[in-house]
Structures are given as C-alpha cells and as structure tokens.
Design goal:
- This protein is mainly alpha-helical and 366 residues long.
- The chain has a domain at 2-224.
- The protein contains 14 helices and eight strands.
- It has helices spanning 2-8, 23-27, 34-50, 54-59, 65-84, 137-149, 181-196, 203-224, 233-258, 262-287, 295-299, 317-326, 331-342, 346-358; strands at residues 52-53, 95-97, 105-111, 121-123, 127-129, 132-134, 153-159, 172-173.
- It has a three-stranded mixed sheet with strand order 1-2-8. A three-stranded antiparallel sheet has the order 6-3-7. A two-stranded antiparallel sheet has the order 4-5.
- Strand 4 (121-123) and strand 5 form a beta hairpin.
- It is globular, with a radius of gyration of 20 Å.
- It starts with a helix and ends in an 8-residue tail after the last helix.
Amino acid sequence: MIRHNAEMLSHLPRVLQRALVIAASLLASACADLRYFAHVSEGQLALADARKPLDEVIAAPTTDPKLAARLRLAREARHYASQHLGLPDNTSYATYVELHRPYVVWNVFAAGRYSVDPVLHCFPIAGCVPYRGYFDEKLAKEAAAHLAAEGDDVFVGGVAAYSTLGWFADPIVSSMLRWDDDELAGTIFHELAHQLVYVKDDTAFNESFATFVQREGLREWRTSRGLSQGGDQDQRRDDEFTRLVLDLRDQLRAFYAGLHDPAELEKGKRREFEDFRERYIAWRDANWPDDHARDAFVAAPLNNATLLPFGLYDQWVPAFVTLFHETGGDWAKFYARVRTLAGESKARRDAALDDAVRASPADASR
C-alpha cells in the first residue's frame, strides 16, 4: 500500500507534487535521531557535490537540446524572480543536479488510526512540520512501516522539489523537469518565497504565502513573455477536489470524536471512505467527466494519513490575495505586510488572515 500510494502521487493535483524538506534545521539539531541526522546530512552533501552551474550545463555540447531548453527557461525564471518579484537574489536554483532517481525526497506522513491530526516532527529552525523527509525511498518505507507497526496510519509520497530555506544553494533537480514550463517557473517562485518569509510552526501560513507568490508571480511572468493567461480549469479542478478531501477530513474528525468503541470506529471509518469515493465519482461525472487523473488515487487504499497533505498549501491564499490588492500590487509593500503578520502571535495572525479572507475579492484563487 505504501508503494502504491507513492506511485499514485504523480497523478494527483499539483499541490501534492510539491513539498518542503528542511534539511538545514536538522543539521543544527544535536537532539535529532542519529540515523536520521546522518542520512539527511549525507543526502544534502550529495546534492551539493553534484551541483553544476546552469550556464555550464546549457553550454556543454553533450547536453541534450531539450534539457538545455528547459534549463534556459529555469534560468530566465530565476532571474525574473529576483528582478521583478522581489525574491532573494542568491545562488539558489542557479545550478542543476541530475538525480538518477524519480524524486529528490520521499515524505512520510502519519496520523493516529482514529485521528486526522498529523504526527508532528519538530526541529530547531524549521519548527514543527507534519512529515519527515528522506532522500532514500527504502528508508522512508522503513520509517513508515515502523509507524504502522505502532498503530498509526501512514502515507509515503515522492516529491520533486526541494528547499532548505536558503541555508544552502538549492539546485534545480531533474525531477522538477517533468513538470510543464508554468509549473517549473512557479516552483522556483514558490521555493524562493520560503526563503523570504518563514514562520516556525505555521505550515499553513508558510505554504499559503508561497503558493500565492507562485500563482501571482506566474501570472506576471506569463504577461511579461507575451503569453495568454489561459484558462483556470486545472486550478479549479484541484481546488474542488481538495475541498472534497477536506470535507471528508472534517467528517472523520467529527466521527472519531463521537465514538470510543474500536469496532464501531473501524466500521464507520471504512464507511466514510466509501462514501467519499461515491461523492468523488458523482463530482467527476457531473463536472469533469473526461478527467480521470485522480481515479487511481481515490480507488487505492486510503487512510487518515493520505488526507494530511491536502489543504497545507492554500488555506490562506485568499487572505494573501487581499493583502496584495490592498498594497496596490506592490511587491515590496506586500512583503512588508507579510513580515508584520509573521511577527504576530499565531492567534493574532490567524485572526488577521481570517479577516482578510472575508474581505477577499471574488477572484481570490488566481
């Protein structure tokens, strides 16, 4: 089931194809599990050793022309991010690494058997995050098996993009090149946004902010290149499917809170997932009858942990849309507002974001 779920990840909404792995914070932790500490250190060093400057790879006569073209686009997007979006101007995403594997890391999510709350992993710099990342798929599966043996629901997903929040010069990795041009450029904007503003212990804030920068940055990037904005059908499908999953998670949360008998919990849990599958089919057939990209994921074994990645990346996006509009689309003023929010307590920050959501314009998903 773990292997199957990981393979299904490539067919899911783009929100599940991007995840953050904070290796730098682990390197600073004397309390981290020694095996994991050694693994992350080795993985980060291997990436660093394999980096090659984009200019060098693009110019090399042995480089495949298609690869050179994709890297030229990545280089242009990297330049645009700093010159026009106000994102950090450093050596991140100015190098390339050929991984010789499908993903840069594999993330392990876990939740209690009758809980939709994640098992958190806390580190000194990154704070608490709802997953643990591994550079080696075998180790990720071993960690998941250990958690499953303790009674947790688990989910392992391969992810293509990688960030250390600017602690290291993160490279473009070959797994990112499976995406189309928009997703490649947008991911660079997204990961650089993490380097600009990051709040410990607030994944929803961090990811929503970076997702907004990705979406708005991509809109401006396409305009600058004379490209049409195209339709928003892909985003609408992602948003609607995510809403279905979040509704399921809310229903499970309420169900788990109301029962204590293990047999009834197990029976009801299975029923909730089956009802979700029926709702999914009805939604797909009524709205997107020709789109079967999510069918395999929905049909595969599902558990509490498979639901955890959903909603991490876009909870507060409408709030950031409001803030951007209020600052007149001025990136410097917008970032100043975001930094002010980042300095507030979580309670005050969430209250301000909630107010901004209610004031968000109709086109808050762009």
